[in-house]
Write a structure and sequence with these properties.
Elements lengths: L1 H18 E7 L9 E4 L6 H4 L8 E6 H4 L4 H7 L3 E3 L6 H11 L3 E4 L18 H9 L3 E7 L6 E5 L6 E5 L3 E7 L12 H31 L5
Parallel strand pairs: 1-9, 2-5, 2-6, 3-4, 3-5
Antiparallel strand pairs: 6-9, 7-8
């Protein structure tokens, strides 16, 4: 499994070097130990590129549609990615919690869907907040920016049923990884969960805007890039 994960990460990194102008900035040097990463979700490419932000193996919550694709689904299962199937309720979040508590980092996209192509964000869901409160793990907010007008709506029937998603295949891809956030409290307290959810999403939005501004500055001053 470790070999498969490392091989997949190498392939993603090679593709990124060829096709993307990838810019990843950390506020702090990544420390060892499990973390709960949370990010916005502007394209279907994010669950693959996001592995490049962490030097340690990471499990990402990914739609069940990807797991039904031959070979890809096998790879995702073997590398301990997490299948999100609405028919199974909170099973994905429970699996993510177990992985965190067993020492593996996890990535959650709180929007639950790919962000609107016209811009902005979907309202965040509460799963990441409840997981943070249950585990006490540090929450690492991540802000992704890419020119959404360059995403491609691709429809495929390779999984056995027709699915469509906005993929980003080449161009600038800017990521800002923020400082850890820590939360304590009761995961069953709805008001507290709501407050943590909004705090997490507010920080993600700010970091996504920072990623956008950095890309715009690079475009205006290529000599300083």
């Amino acid at each position: 499994n470790k070999i498969l994960y490392s091989l997949g990460r190498i392939i993603v990194r090679l593709y990124a070097r060829l096709m993307f102008n990838l810019d990843i900035r950390w506020y702090d040097d990544p420390s060892p130990g499990p973390k709960l990463f949370v990010a916005n979700h502007p394209s279907a490419t994010d669950p693959f590129l996001i592995h490049l932000i962490s030097p340690q193996p990471m499990s990402v919550l990914i739609t069940v549609n990807a797991f039904t694709v031959p070979l890809l689904g096998f790879y995702l299962r073997k590398t301990r990615q997490i299948c999100v199937d609405p028919r199974q309720g909170s099973a994905a979040l429970e699996e993510a919690r177990r992985l965190l508590e067993n020492g593996r980092s996890v990535m959650v996209f709180p929007e639950g869907l790919i962000s609107p192509k016209e811009g902005g964000f979907h309202s965040p869901r509460s799963g990441a907040a409840r997981m943070a409160l249950k585990t006490g793990m540090p929450v690492i907010p991540v802000g992704i920016y890419l020119p959404r007008e360059r995403t491609l709506r691709i429809t495929s029937g390779i999984s056995g049923k027709e699915t469509a998603a906005n993929w980003y295949l080449r161009g600038p891809y800017s990521v800002t990884v923020g400082q850890p956030m820590k939360f304590e409290g009761n995961a069953e307290d709805r008001e507290q969960v709501r407050g943590v959810t909004l705090s997490i999403m507010e920080r993600i939005r700010a970091l996504a805007q920072e990623s956008e501004q950095r890309l715009l500055r690079r475009r205006r001053s290529p000599a300083q890039a």
